[in-house]
Specification:
By secondary structure, this protein is mainly alpha-helical. It has 4 helices and no strands. It is elongated, with a radius of gyration of 44 Å. The protein starts with 15 loop residues before the first helix and ends with a helix.
Length: about 180
């Protein structure tokens, strides 16, 4: 038993919006891949052209074989023709990609890349916390130093008073004896 062939529009009528959007996304992605491959082909062809030009001898009085020259010239023209075709193909791919992406709002690249942890904000927070804690520590150290100076001043006054008291006691004892 064979199944009848599906109509061309049979499946697309159920979810036209979703399939059109999916086709648009796939087409844009595949177009970008095609564009990337085209650029690689352009680079390869360009390298081959430079290789051919490097191997060609300049007509500076040296005898050369006309068949070899014609062969190399033919290869060079073929490469240039293919390069022209590849550039036209790349332009078409580029225009189609721009057309597909025309309705999309530009999204910053930072939002497209999933971050496990944003190190820069963590470092900023960490440095801000370190700055804040360092500032608090410095303020505490300054307060402790101020209190220490005050206590030192009080101890100095007490020591001066005790010294004076001892002098007085020694003076009284010296007068008595």
């Amino acid at each position: 038993m064979t199944t009848p062939p599906l109509a061309a529009g049979g499946m697309t009528s159920q979810f036209p919006g979703q399939q059109a959007q999916a086709a648009r996304d796939v087409n844009t992605a595949s177009l970008c891949r095609i564009g990337q491959e085209t650029v690689q082909d352009i680079v390869l062809r360009t390298m081959e052209i430079f290789q051919l030009l490097r191997n060609m001898q300049l007509p500076n009085g040296v005898t050369y074989h006309p068949t070899t020259h014609q062969d190399r010239l033919g290869k060079l023209q073929e490469h240039l023709r293919m390069l022209s075709v590849l550039f036209r193909k790349l332009r078409l791919v580029y225009d189609k990609c721009i057309e597909n992406c025309a309705g999309l709002e530009p999204v910053p690249p930072e939002q497209l890349i999933p971050y496990v942890e944003d190190d820069s904000s963590k470092l900023d927070e960490r440095s801000a916390n370190q700055t804040r804690s360092a500032s608090e520590e410095r303020r505490e150290v300054l307060e402790v130093n101020k209190k220490l100076r005050q206590k030192n001043q009080q101890l100095k006054q007490i020591m001066d008073q005790l010294r004076n008291l001892i002098w007085e006691i020694n003076s009284m004892l010296a007068v008595r004896s």
